[in-house]
Design brief:
By secondary structure, this protein is α/β, with parallel strands linked by helices. It has a domain at 38-166: Pectate Lyase C-like (3 Solenoid). The chain has two helices and 16 strands. It has a six-stranded parallel sheet, with no helix packed on it. Strands 2-5-8-11-14-16 form a six-stranded parallel sheet, with no helix packed on it. It is globular, with a radius of gyration of 19 Å.
């Protein structure tokens, strides 16, 4: 049998595979590279995980994630230029995922209250393989408040001023693995 005889079937199989829906909350083709800013990409792709490509991506305002199922993943670094602004903020959202990225500041300043990650009133937040550098906030590097089932896994925090863990008498709202924090001053 010739390739010509199988070509229509092979073409249909390839097209079907390319059009098949992805599982919910699985990384899709959306990425931050084709937009004027990371915030513009997040706003245009609510409910999706966005791929942050390798490289340093500068911001001057906090990135805001407020849509359920949204998030960022990839090898990229987000560098905040304004010492008075948080780097990433998520409010009133469920199933937000931040994975593999590095959060840093272009200029280290002491005596500031801006944090690397601020999550408030979130459900099922996942911060995995997150790297925080040069965030010398008086508050904390990662600040999670009133968030059910928040998970912080495989994190690295370097060049920090404060690490504060307040679990409100071992509340079931915050899940932390039994491994110790990875932090270097």
């Amino acid at each position: 049998m010739t390739l010509r005889r199988y070509s229509p079937w092979l073409l249909m199989l390839l097209l079907f595979g390319a059009c098949a829906d992805k599982e919910p909350n699985q990384p899709g083709p959306a990425g931050a590279a084709g937009y004027s800013s990371i915030q513009a990409a997040l706003d245009s792709n609510k409910g999706k995980l966005l791929y942050l490509p390798e490289g340093v991506h500068g911001i001057s305002k906090a990135l805001l994630i407020e849509a359920d199922g949204s998030g960022l993943y990839g090898p990229g670094t987000i560098s905040q230029a304004d010492p008075d602004q948080d780097i990433l903020v998520s409010r009133d959202a469920a199933d937000v995922r931040i994975e593999g990225i590095t959060l840093t500041r272009s200029e280290v300043q002491l005596g500031k209250n801006a944090v690397a990650v601020r999550a408030e009133n979130c459900r099922s937040l996942l911060l995995r393989d997150l790297h925080v550098r040069n965030n010398r906030s008086d508050v904390a590097a990662i600040f999670i408040r009133q968030s059910d089932h928040a998970r912080v896994e495989d994190r690295g925090i370097a060049d920090y001023k404060t690490i504060h863990v307040d679990d409100r008498l071992e509340s079931p709202c915050i899940d932390t693995p039994s491994t110790p924090w990875t932090a270097t001053a």
